[in-house]
Amino acid sequence: MKWHDLNSPEIKALASRDPVAILPVAGIEQHGPHLPLSTDVNIGEGLVEAAVTQLETIPLVVLPTQTVGASLEHVTFPGTLTLSPQSLEDALVGLASGLHAAGLRRLVLSNSHGGNKAAIDSAALRIRCEFTMLVVKAHYFRFPRPSGVGLPDTEWMHGLHGGAIETAMMMHLKPDLVRTDELQCFSSLGEELERTLAWIRPEGVAPFAWTSYDLNPQGVSGDATLATAELGSRLVEHYAGVLAEVVRDAHAFPIGHLERRQTEV
Fold it and tell me: Could you read off the pLDDT of 162-193 as tens digits, one per residue?
């Protein structure tokens, strides 16, 4: 059920069922020579659509995708569109105010772009404090790895952008948009740092601030040649399954705990 396909009385009736609202948050940004600018949108919407098919008994509504995200790390490459992290944060809070006004109390932010994490963290806490809503931050790339997927550990660690994982899911979801003649292994600075430094990496215990050009001059990190449509299908099935479980949890969450007021210090 899509928010924008309903009318106002239907939204009112839906709110009476205490539904979970799912807001896909994505990005429009470069993904190298082999993937389109819409990659994060396509993956994010594909995962939500696949998850929703597993949730027929859960009252829910899918909001219009927040298409443009915070993509400052990619602005040196043509085609990237970005909001500042503050603007994205404010946009998410503004959207939540509309949900709150309609009587909704449960929100899952389903994020498909790593650069959105900081804005989502700040927005989620503001929404919790201002509207007493449950806000769940669901970043698919932080979900557990699927079992039995034969990618090397280096790809899971360093294939951060446009590598095998994203390319495979795009081969499954939007095969016509993948330029298979441009697939390459895009080595990452992170691999060199793993060999030469104790802790500093692009991600992990002590991450440093980076642009995609810092990691690879083509703005891509990972081995896209490892991608197949079959791998993409397995990844989408796995990540969508985890997302469906997150939505079930959001529906079952004891929201009364958030609505209590502290009476004693």
Answer: 999 999 999 999 999 999 999 999 999 999 99
Residue 44 corresponds to which tokens in the numbers above?
Answer: 């994010």
Is the pTM here over 0.85, yes or no?
yes
Q: Are 210 and 18 in contact (CB under 8 A)?
A: no
Domains and CATH numbers, the chain: 3-257 (3.40.50.10310)
User: Nearest Cα to 115, choosing from 76, 79, 73, 157?
Assistant: 73
Residue 146 host element (H or E): none
Distances (CA, A) of 265 to 125, 132, 180, 261: 21, 20, 61, 11
Residues 190-248 pLDDT 10s: 999 999 999 999 999 999 999 999 999 999 999 999 999 999 999 999 999 999 999 99
3-class DSSP state of 110? strand
Q: Residue 225 — left, alpha, or beta (φ > 0 → left; ψ -120 to 50 → alpha)?
A: alpha
